[in-house]
Amino acid sequence: MPLPRYEAWSSARGAEVIAAHAHMEGATLPILHALQEEFGYVPVEAEPMIAHALNLSRAEVHGVVSFYHDFRRAPAGRHVLKLCRAEACQSVGADALHEHACKKLGVAPLGTMGGETTADGAVTVEQVFCLGLCASGPSAMLDGKPIGRLNRARLDTLLDRARAR
């Protein structure tokens, strides 16, 4: 599967993306998803543009962006690893895998929000709170592909392959 190539942020292109979705009912989320699909993240500069287009306050738009963990504030790496941190996965070792992945990649362990990208831009590590693979945890998602029954060896293999591409 080819990796996504994101366009560099420009307010003109951002305005086009916003305008293309502003007519939709409940347009805030579709606009945010479209911006992230286009640019790889939701630029802070887009928030007042969205607010103006939808007749919302900037605080309302910012509240939506900051509430949902799926929206990034900085461009992601070439690969995105989402590690499940929900209770079912925690009970079978997800926390240890999270620490191992962060140490292996040289990124800070994640707090309750956000993600970290390796210095070379190869991998962004994010946490999620349920991938729906509770019966086969610990689970993760790498570049949109779900992975169950994850262990250190399998995680190392996935990360080594991702960094090589």
TrEMBL record:
**Gene encoding it?**
nuoE
Q: Which stretches are transmembrane? A: none
Q: How is the cofactor bound?
A: Binds 1 [2Fe-2S] cluster.
Q: Origin, by domain of life?
A: Bacteria
GO MF term set: 2 iron, 2 sulfur cluster binding; metal ion binding; oxidoreductase activity
Q: Which PROSITE patterns match?
A: COMPLEX1_24K (PS01099)
**InterPro entries of this UniProt entry?**
NADP_DH_HndA-like, NuoE-like, NuoE_N, Thioredoxin-like_sf
Known CDD domains for this protein? TRX_Fd_NuoE_FDH_gamma (cd03081)
Which family does the entry's similarity section mention? Belongs to the complex I 24 kDa subunit family.
Query: What catalytic reaction does the record list?
Result: a quinone + NADH + 5 H(+)(in) = a quinol + NAD(+) + 4 H(+)(out)
Q: Which residues bind [2Fe-2S] cluster?
A: C84, C89, C130, C134
- Which Pfam families does the UniProt record give? 2Fe-2S_thioredx
Q: Which cofactor does it need?
A: [2Fe-2S] cluster
Q: Which protein, by its recorded name, is this?
A: NADH-quinone oxidoreductase subunit E
Report keywords, A-Z.
Answer: 2Fe-2S, Iron, Iron-sulfur, Metal-binding
